[in-house]
Amino acid sequence: MGDTNATLNAKGDTHDFEIKSGTLGPDVVDIRKLYANTGMFTYDPGFTSTASCDSALTYIDGEEGVLLHRGYPIGQLAEHSSFMEVAHLLLNGDLPSAEELDDFTYTITRHTMLHDQLRQFYQGFRRDAHPMAIMCGAVGALSAFYHDSTDISDPEHRKISSHRLIAKMPTIAAMAYKYAIGQPFMQPDNSLSYTGNFLRMTFGVPAEEYEVNPVVERALDRIFILHADHEQNASTSTVRLAGSSGANPFACIAAGIACLWGPAHGGANEAALNMLHEIGTPDKIPEYIARAKNKDDPFRLMGFGHRVYKNYDPRATVMQKTVREVFESLNVSDPVFEVALQLEEMALNDDYFVEKKLFPNVDFYSGVILSAIGFPTTMFTALFALARTVGWVAQWNEMISDPAQRIGRPRQLYTGPAQRDYVPVDKR
Ligand code: ACO
């Protein structure tokens, strides 16, 4: 790594910085000594040019529309793999053998129940609370229930808390839904798959047997795979930053959930479906495209554009195919899907979107599928959080076990007043 240097000429001095190469992707200039050597900081709001860490988990080439987890293309994983397999891959570095997969699935399955007292925690929320508000609270509260796995210096504790988070997230999310609609909580059923169990806890009721529809189970499992990790996005960086201070993993994941909630990030699938409903019929599409292009109108096409992808988001391709499968299996047709297809086509043929390289992202179609399955829009981001927990946990583990890890502490360009003297209130 690093056989060349970058030279900075600044204020009459020359400074050399090592250029480091990864296995794929752009090289980086190692500027860790910049401040010590020059007395200057770099300035990069939004971190568009900043690599905050080394990571061996996920690789994205936004220009080419490539997404790899531990080297495997997302399309292959979505087609052939299961969410449990992908979780093992992200956490442990490789696809599991059949025996490893059985062991891993067994372990996760045995951690699906919540401490019984956590149920009372739910009663403290209003029934109309957003599921993400409940998720932030309930996940943060796990640290109050599972003290025996919060010593982050102990690899065994880290492993157990990681498994607990992945296993309990479907139970927490399903309970948030049940609480909102006033139905009794469903206990996990360990004979079902990770995703089948989540469907039963969400849509089943104690009075009846719940039969898992295999097409829906596969579609949702695929959605979980597509959302499992996405390198150093806002919520993952939040988890890493929270974790860099030594905070326990439950608190860190709660921080990630808070960040994911925003409409520019995880909230986009909810916003995209709401937008498609608002458009309603294909004849209204040109009006909305014109609004998205109008600089004086804050409206944006939700589910379009991405900080990293400047090409078709590879996850959106899988999503579009999955919509059709789910609609056929459930025998539903939704005019919103027609609006989505036509909107995509019109936008992709419009100079504004072409020039700015704005393509549909993963959220453009996921809302249509989740809605067909029966999830209310408020649950969409909660499902995203459920799936992304695997990535967050894997990234957090990678960070904690890195000997070079330090507390994350960005600097700033101060633009406030220079030092001035205090003025008593009667003199102001
Ligand atoms: N509709 C219309 N115009 C857009 C859109 C959009 N969806 N997205 C970007 N643009 C325009 C901007 O107005 C800007 O134009 P300008 O250069 O003339 O000022 C240009 O494209 C660049 O946009 P930025 O906001 O600077 O790009 P950034 O990388 O910061 O933003 C983001 C990316 C937040 C995803 C943005 O494209 C967006 O708001 N999209 C809609 C929300 C969305 O779908 N988010 C989901 C992201 S995926 C995820 O989190 C899983």
Write up what this structure looks like:
Helix content is 51%, strand content 6%. The radius of gyration is 23 Å and the shape is globular. The chain is mostly helical and 428 residues long. The protein has helices spanning 34-38, 74-80, 83-92, 98-109, 118-123, 131-145, 155-181, 194-203, 214-226, 234-244, 249-260, 268-279, 285-293, 314-330, 335-348, 351-355, 363-373, 380-400; strands at 4-10, 13-20, 28-29, 58-61, 66-69, 72-73. It has a three-stranded antiparallel sheet with strand order 1-2-3. A three-stranded antiparallel sheet has the order 4-5-6. It contains 18 helices and six strands. Acetyl coenzyme *A (ACO) is lined by residues 264-265, 268, 292, 300-307, 356, 358, 361-363.
Number of helices: 18
Secondary-structure content class:
mainly alpha
Distance between the termini: 59 Å
Number of strand segments: 6
| Radius of gyration from CA coordinates | 23 Å
Largest sheet: 3 strands, antiparallel
**Tell me, what's the shape?**
globular
List unreliable stretches of 5+ residues. none
What's the mean pLDDT score? Answer: 94
Share of residues in strands: 5-15%
| Order of strands in the sheet with most strands | 1-2-3
Summarize the amount of helix as a percent range. Answer: 40-55%
| SSE series | EEEHEEEHHHHHHHHHHHHHHHHH
Bound molecules: acetyl coenzyme *A
